[in-house]
Amino acid sequence: MKKPFMFLSLIIPGPKSPKGNLDVFLQPLIEELKLLWEIGLPTYDISNKQSFQMKVALLWTVSDFPAYGILSGWTTAGKLACSYCMENTKAFTLKNGGKQSWFDYHRQFLSHNHVFRKNKSAFRKDTVENSSPPPRLSGEEVSNRVSLLPKTTECIRNEGKRPEWYGILHHWTKQSVFWELPYWRKLLIRHNLDVMHIEKNVFDNAFHTIMEVKGKTKDDLKARKDMKVYCKRRKLETRVVLDSKGGKKILNPNAPFMLPKEKRKLICEWVKKLKFPDGYASNLDLLPLNVWNVITELSQFFRDLCSTTLKVNHVVRLEENIPEIICKLERIFPPGFFNSMEHLPIHLPYEAKVGGPVQYRRMYPCESLFEEQMMRECGYQSLEEVWIKSEDEYPNWFKEYVLGKGINNDIIRSLSFGPLTRVRKFKQYHINGFHFHAFEYGKNKSTMKYGICVKRSQGKDFYGILQEVIELTYVGARKRYTTVLFKCDWFDIGHGTRIHEKYNLVEVNHIRRYPKLIERMVRSRGGLNGRIIIRPRTANPSRPISQSSQDENPDFALEVHNSSQNEEQSIEYNSNHHEEGRDADLDVDTSEIEEEAEFLHETGNPEATQILHKTEGLW
Asked: How many whole angstroms separate alpha carbon 594 and alpha carbon 530?
């Protein structure tokens, strides 16, 4: 599917949105979808060079929350806004604020022996929670409920006229046109809750309240009055005091979740200069610890939920954690803070478990032991001296080793002879779904795309600044191979980083850096599929490899790191087993090409490893 055909555009005439009458304009689409499901469409398969009858099904819709109501027929406003909880909601109207609140609604999603259920003071005062979460209806059950409702396509719906018991037992306004699809009732998810908009609204509410943004904060005078009605938080209740002229003035005590003016100014100055990659943060310890902890847990929930790879056990963990996270928020923020957007995250793990990773359902459309040997035999003291010596001696050693062993693999032989002297340089580079800028090119831009993070299987990850992107060309007997080098300045992870023990947030000291190191990231014609490390089997380059058994002592060991499955596997390559006319027979499924470089300062005997990566056309 090419980009120009990704979206189906529909132009609707008239000065106003059709809202619930949108079904009238969707009717032609529904008729075509019914034909594509029942009869199909003759389609040519280029791979098999033959035609077949293609059948098509609409899997689900993706929209923001108001459009969710238009498409599904369930109004997404008011106490019954949640289409999962439906009439089983415990949302209520605030006495002073006059808006709907989902405060103290989420203890029922906790385990029955959870300590929060019996707490009478931290949530709604003098209230315990013994009920179970609302049942989740199947598509068949929902279909039976809407079957008697009128269709928009039969008569234009009058917005002022609602079905019987609307707002009390249900929030249905119509029978959606999508129910005409014969398979619609069989789907587990028909309309997706959009994670992007939910995350944005949750962030906005929290940020505006913490920063006390006038007109947007959820902690105003009415909220404090409601807090007195529903909560036991006497320290935060409004007080009447006398001003300098003897008049009465209502005073709101400072809440622990609100930053004072000087700290708000500090946050604004920090955000103005902030340029961090996703998932990393710094200087967030201005709030009280209990508030900071729950805000961090909420942030990590959305980060984990939006991961490109999801495992069932991870989603189950998210489903168990989110009720407790929301309950912790309820212990801190006022009842007016909890509108429908603060409630909807409770259902997001279920949709991820059924529908898969969020990126398909939301609206957001890349060791040799040579240096260790050198350090052990020559006694170099500094890491920089090791690298200087490595750069001088390693290429010659590698070439002599390959030629001396008679290795015929075209890739390895081309690497041993070195690249052409003519290179290409890039100011920006797109690889494996990520877009990088060289530092000089991107330093004045509003977003940071020159930060590099190299994941390690054990120990701390590496962080650096991308300085140059260079493409080298290696000429083999059969073809040319290209490899892209990322030249980076690396931060000292031994003394220049700090990681929060509980939440794994990373702070980086930009002053402390390692000596120069080139990070190699590789581009292949078929796309980036893995990280492959090629190294000699022997730890000592001067010591010959045992010839007693070629199968037991192959010339090279290739470690394939499959990042999509978080697994590692080792594959042995023996030059004598290589067949003439084809590359090494390595049938592996990999997902990301990276380079890993290791530095060990703690032992007093620093060690660096240099990695050779796969190049274009290797597998």
From this structure: 7
CA distances from 149 to 172, 376, 397 (A): 8, 81, 80
Give the ranges where 331-382 is alpha helix by DSSP (H).
340-343, 348-355, 370-378
Averaging pLDDT over each range in 98-107, 262-271, 596-605, which range is the top one? 98-107
- Adjacent-strand bridge partners of 434: 431
Angle at 83 between CA 77 and CA 85, to 5 degrees: 105
Q: Among candidates 550, 535, 508, which has minimal Cα distance to 595?
A: 535
**334-376: per-residue pLDDT in tens?**
999 999 999 999 999 999 999 988 877 776 553 344 445 455 5
Give the whole-number percent of the chain exceeding pLDDT 90.
34
Question: What gap in Å lies between CA 435 and CA 366, rounded to an integer?
Answer: 13
Residues 193-203: pLDDT tens digits?
989 889 999 99
Cα-based angle 508, 486, 583 (whole degrees, multiple of 5)? 130
- Say which amino acid occupies 276: F
- Whole-model pTM: value is 0.64
Q: Is 358 exposed, middle or buried (0-12, 13-18, 19+ CB in 10 A)?
A: buried
Reading phi first (left if > 0) and then psi (alpha if -120 to 50, else beta), residue 167 is in left
- Spell out a b/e string for 199-229, using b for 16 or more CB atoms within 10 Å of the CB, else e: bebbeebbebbbebeeeebbbbebbbbbbbe
